[in-house]
Structures are given as C-alpha cells and as structure tokens.
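User: Fold this; tokens only.

Assistant: Input:
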Amino acid sequence: MIKVLLVDDHEMVRIGVAAYLSAQPDIEVIAEADDGKVAIDLALKHKPHIILMDLVMKEMDGIEATKKIMEEWPDAKIIIVTSFLDDEKVYPALEAGATSYILKTSKANEIANAIRSTYNGQSILEPEVAGKMMKRMRQKTKQLPHEELTNREMEILLLIAQGKTNQEIADELFIALKTVKVHVSNILAKLDVQDRTQAVIYAFKHSLVQ
C-alpha cells in the first residue's frame, strides 16, 4: 500500500480526494492536515510514502512546510497539488524540494496515477510547469554577448575602452592594422552594437572595465 498524507485547508477537497484514493486497491490515506505546521508534525511522525501538499494555507503555506519537511526528512516525496501556475509559486515549491507539481483541476485518476508514478521514482509536472522550467533553464544557460568574445577580442575591447585607435592597438599588440579591423568588426557583431562608442558603453555597463 502506498501511504499518503493529505494536506489541504479545504475540508471538502480533503473529503473528496480521500474518498477516491481510499477506494484504490494500492493507496491508503493514513492522515490529513489542514495546515503546514500540522503537516510537518504528521509527516515526521508517520513517514508516509507520499505527501499531497496544498500551497496556500492560513498558518503556514505549502512551500514553507515543504522546506521544513525536506530539511528534517530529505527522502520525503512531496506532490504539490494547487490551483497556481504563476512563477512565484512554481519555482519556490520545486526549489523547496517538491518532487511533483499537479493542478487541482486534474481528474481524480490523474492524481492517483501521479501518486503511483512519484512513488516509483518519477517526477510528474504539469505540461505548463515543465515548459516554464525548460524556459528558465535556457535563460540560465544563455551566454551574455561578451562571453562569446575570444581572449584577443576581449583584449582589443579593453584597449578600445581606453580610447586607443586601431593603429595604436595594432602597434601595442604587434599585429597588422587589417587584423585589428577584423577583430573590431567581430566585436561589434558579437556585442550587437553599431560602433566603437556603443561597444565602450557595453563594456562599462557590464563592468568589464573600471
């Protein structure tokens, strides 16, 4: 039997979910809580296989309760069941340690299947939540324009910021003037700026030069 702790501050929601889950041959609701603080105590006492956690509750919300449960019991498997898809709810809940994230609009059998899947080591995310996470990961891994510059291009950008002309840069680096011009052209293209002045502004804005 998959033992489940059901946490929701709406009694009618708990009654409905508990009734359906208890009718399943492989799931047992062993305890219920209407608040995050109570959920922590029950979770640590009963060590259920799965915790169904609501997010918005009066005394302590589901995010804080999830954090505290995971601190005391890192192996806990928590499924967030909520109506919220906004970023300020999704990310903190997952970062707190929630294993899965589904909506209250899910059908009863979908909640039961999420319990089974999470119990078996899978992470279940609403499609929109999964999309948000992928987008956030792409944003985190996306390079800033100046990170695409080669060492030589960065060196030349710093000399441009010092006010040096192409010829002065060529003389200082002992390279051909034509080579400097090619590097400057590449720098402007990579930084997506129109001229040397904008390149210098970019350098200062991103603290590449003092």
